[in-house]
Amino acid sequence: MMNQEFTQEQMEQLEAFLLSHMEKDGCMPLDVAQGYLTAVVSGPHMIMPNEWLPGILGDVDFSSGFAGFDQTAMNQFPASVHH
After folding, report:
1. Angle formed by the axes of helices 8-20 and 71-80, to 10°?
2. 46 contacts 31 by C-beta, under 8 angstroms
3. Cα separation of 79 and 4, whole Å?
4. Rounded to an integer, what distance in angstroms lies between the CA atom of residue 83 and that of residue 24?
5. Per residue, what are the HEC states of 15-37?
6. Which residue in 8, 23, 52, 59 has its CB near the most CB atoms, within 10 A?
C-alpha cells in the first residue's frame, strides 16, 4: 500500500464536508473524527473501516456518489491521524 500524505487542501475539503453534513446526517466534526480514529488505530485489534466509518459519517447517503468530494481524501484520512 502506498503511503500518501494527506494534504492541507484535502483536510479542509473533508472538514467542510463533515460540517455541511453534521446537523442533517450526524457527521462528526473533524477534530472529533480525528480523536475517534486515534482511538481506533491505537486499540489492540484492527477495526475494519465498515465498522468505524459509519460512526464518523453518520447517516450520509452516498448512493449517488460522493457529490464532488474527493474519495481519495477519505481513503487517506485514517493515515492522517498519525501525523
Report:
1. 100
2. no
3. 8
4. 30
5. HHHHHHCHHHHCCCCHHHHHHHH
6. 52
**pLDDT (tens digit, 9 = 90+) per residue, 7-39?**
888 888 889 988 988 888 889 999 999 999 999
Cell of 63: 448512493
Which residues, including other chains, have CB under 8 Å from residue 68's CB and lie 6 or more apart?
A: none
**Higher pLDDT residue, 26 or 74?**
26
The C-alpha cell that represents 76 in the structure block: 487517506
Residue type, 52: W
What dihedral angle (degrees, nearest 10) is formed by the CA atoms of 27, 51, 64, 7? 70
Task: Report yes or no on whether pTM surpasses 0.85.
Answer: no
Average pLDDT, the chain: 78
Helix (H, G, I), strand (E, B) or coil at 53: helix
- Spell out the domain ranges in the chain: 28-83
